[in-house]
Amino acid sequence: MSPTPEFDLDKAHRFFSADCFNRAWDYIDKPSRTVEEGQAMLLLSLASLWHWTQRVDATPSNLSVGYWQVSRVYALLGQAENARQFGLLSLKESQKDGILPFYLGYSYEALARAESVAGDREKAQSYIALARQASEKMTDAEAKKLLLDDLATV
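and the corresponding structure tokens:
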């Protein structure tokens, strides 16, 4: 068993879940990445997700986004099976009671990317259609536009 740390573990999980997420996003936004940057992007997204799973205040929405980011990173790295695995985990979280359609839409977006990377255009299109259906239930116009714009890049 690990000894009790000399710092506030809950605060550390809060810090690293957000910090690693944002730092991974910096790599996601890059138009091209070195192999080393791709590795850093993956490790940061996985670290962020792990820290989210350790937080007592983590919600299904938080976990859905965490799984979504890992899926997106794997898609960017061309790893379709891993992208699909984390996309499905995102979908599972986004289908829980009380979750906004935004999260469901992005889970389908992740799965569409995974299938696109896998070369299955038909499955990708079916997930895009499901994401668009979810967008119809969104009341935040800005969030809806963000999702639809992301779907156009799949």
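(Above: one complete record from the training split.) The first helix runs from residue 9 to 28.
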